[in-house]
Prior knowledge:
The chain is α+β, with helices and mostly antiparallel strands. It is built from 14 helices and 31 strands. α7 (about 210-215) packs across α8 (about 220-235). Mean pLDDT is about 85; it is low at about 45-55 and about 65-70. The site of guanosine-5',3'-tetraphosphate has 19 residues, from α2. Guanosine-5',3'-tetraphosphate binds near residues 21 and 45.
Amino acid sequence: MNLAAEIEKRRTFGIISHPDAGKTTLTEKLLLFGGAIQKAGAVKSNKIDMHARSDWMEIEKQRGISVATSVMAFEYEGVKINLLDTPGHQDFAEDTYRTLTAVDSVIMVVDCVKGVEIQTEKLMEVCRMRKTPVIAFINKLDREGRDPYDLLDDIEAKLGIQVHPLSWPIGMGKSFQGVYSLYDKSLRLFKAGGKQLHEEAQRFADVQSVELDKVLGQSYANQLREDVELLSDLYGPLDVDQYLKGEVAPVFFGSAINNFGVKELLDTFLKVSPNPKPRKLDEEWVPPIAEEFTGFVFKIHANMDPKHRNRLAFLRVCSGKFERGGNYYHTRQNKKFRISQATAFMAQDKETIDEAFPGDIIGLYDTGNFKIGDTLTQGKKGSYKGIPAFSPEIFREVINKDAMKTKQLDKGLAQLMDEGVAQLFSFELGARKAVGVVGQLQFEVIQYRLKNEYGASVEFAPMQLYKACWISAKDPKKLNAFISSKQRHIAKDKQGKLVFMAETKAWLQMVQDNFPEIDFHFTSEF
Ligand code: G4P
């Protein structure tokens, strides 16, 4: 098969949701359709169980499991689907943000009882920033949830995206009858337990048909007629281009656990979702069809065995064809590497691969050569952009408890930061180091891993910090003057970029007012 055909048949997407909305359940059903797993229960959730908080080995184990499950490739109706699972736990949100840089579209799961929840709002911000096409799946229709019109309003209001329902529920909870597909005008009746998996939906091109009364009963049939009329007035046909630009989110209703509404979602997804698109390497847009292979690392996973420091770097292929055994140019290190080992992630396993195409995610064994954001090419010099670091929300000072192990501590910290576990800021004055994270849990993971993998002991002391702001200015003199006047609050991130460590929101505002010539950025790419 030639490169164009390989690109045409690929869909690479991520599933996002607030924990417990049903992401794992939906993933599993999608894999069942793809024949990638044979029975329910085969996909382990990669969420961190809050009850296991005090058992770090358990977390490590869970993180280990998530390697196998976090990228899942399968084929469905001739399409190669690469599904990227994301940690739902908010303490690992950075990991999710980065994963979203490697996908071409997103399916977002919303719980019909709870509506849009906070974690989904944050993730949607990242999708909006990147203009990623999003499809929403409103789940758990077998429960008494909120009114479907309310849910659509909730998505529009909280997620700042226009919605476009493509299926519509008939009843809900105990009286849930099924969904009508507004996309291909068919009705699927609900039976609990996923029994309708292979049943054909009934086509009802005209909802006025008397047949509909026979199937649904007059009252539900009339309600559906009213809804369909109202919805077609409100939304009209879907403008696929608007979806592809990330301006409109098609919405489906269903119940993942009952495998209901999932086929409609998947079938439509295959019809409308984007295949790999050009990506920006420095200032140049590289189309996937470009002959030269390019790709970037968006995730690094530590090996579970502390005796071996091998890690697995997850690389998204952006253009050309990747071949195992090839010599590829590593932009940051400015040298070529022979890649002799590469794996593909199948639904439940990793397997060695010889080649990969745009949209594919491959795992590269790494002994410390890769960092998140690294670009590999067939020779082209340049880096893929778009994996920004966001300002962390909680900061602690690193206190070395064992001076004999300073080297190990530095090495451990550097490697954990390469993996993107947290962000390290080194203050210009006094050699102080601050670790910034999104969630508390990460400090405990870092402490545990430094001890177990590097033999270093640390404690974390509280720091009064509100935000890390990357700074720049058109006039270097002004920037230098600012740095001199705020020296105690200036640090460098791990790439050596200058960061202003603001103690409080009010103070940051004051400093911004007093230094209008300085630009303060809340992400590392600007
Ligand atoms: P997550 O990955 O987004 O965190 O959610 P997950 O799929 O683990 O689902 C969270 C809970 O919601 C699970 O119940 C799951 O069974 C349930 N669930 C998923 N889809 C549906 C649905 O369509 N209807 C209903 N009623 N429930 C659904 P749990 O009790 O937390 O776990 P489990 O013991 O059932 O696995």
